[in-house]
């Protein structure tokens, strides 16, 4: 199956789900049978529609009409875009330990936390979509059954004449052991694999004292929330935009979403915390952790993010963030 046709079919499924009323969707025996033989274009519906609607319109101040219109195809291009290897407009969750953690453990605390912290740096999850039926496509891994719709952190780039000067960094603590980085020669690793590794930011975020204090309070609150949820391996998505660029965002105009002006006048900064779906108490991370610990007894390569504790990961994550900040 061609990758392009598969992605196109999945895009259409997600777009249909975002316009379909889940309350009018009725499960039937015939519907289950017909859906089972779907491989590419599967039926998806919104999950917890009212919950995410409250976040979008009451907390994050999106305009309902603009939000719905953003998913309509314009200029012949699909409005949903893949974000790395995570899927469409943010993330697909193909692995059971990730989506079961989000649905059963994290969703309710996330909604409560984001309602109380509207300027949080945690990535905004604006919709959650899933397949109501089992299909051949989901069984064989051809089409993920669960998808998140997230805010577009790159909003405004396509219309910016200086788009090629935008800089994007996906940052994690660098003192952990990564097999694909630390064991295998770079010449033997594919570019796709290298692109998934955390970046290095060899500069400083230049912040005035007031902006630094507000930012530091937010990042501490956000990571404390993730620690309490037993999460590790999250990252900081940092975007630098030329200071002369005139950019805007939809919804609440939080400083680190809109673009915080740097103290030296050269940049505007955007930042989000993302990839917070790896919980230490779920089965697969625990199993992989055992494998890595066994490997380290022999190889003595040091800890990985999946073998650390949430408190230790938070400590190193905050140290990484503090290291890249210069206060003016």
Describe this structure in words.
The chain has 2 domains: 3-150, Phosphatidylinositol Phosphate Kinase II Beta (2-Layer Sandwich), CATH 3.30.800; 163-327, Phosphatidylinositol Phosphate Kinase Iibeta, Chain: A, domain 2 (2-Layer Sandwich), CATH 3.30.810. Mean pLDDT is 78; it is low at 84-90, 179-197 and 294-301. It starts with a helix and ends with a strand. It has helices at residues 3-19, 29-36, 49-59, 64-69, 96-116, 136-139, 179-182, 191-195, 209-228, 255-258, 283-299, 310-323, and strands spanning 45-46, 90-92, 125-130, 146-150, 167-171, 205-207, 231-232, 235-242, 260-261, 267-274, 278-279, 325-327. α9 runs antiparallel to α12. It has 12 helices and 12 strands. A hairpin with a 5-residue loop joins β9 and β10. The strands form 4 sheets. A 4-stranded antiparallel β-sheet has the order 1-3-4-2.
The helix fraction, in percent, is 25-40%
By DSSP (H or I, 4+ residues per run), the number of helices equals 12
Look at the structure and give the mean pLDDT. Answer: 78
CATH topology of the largest domain: Phosphatidylinositol Phosphate Kinase Iibeta, Chain: A, domain 2
Give me the secondary-structure category: alpha+beta
How much strand content do the residues show? 5-15%
Count of β-strands: 12
Strand order within the widest sheet? 1-3-4-2
| String of helices and strands | HHEHHEHEHEEHHEHEEHEEEHHE
Bulk shape: globular
Question: Which CATH first-tier class of the largest domain would you pick?
Answer: Alpha Beta
Radius of gyration: 21 Å
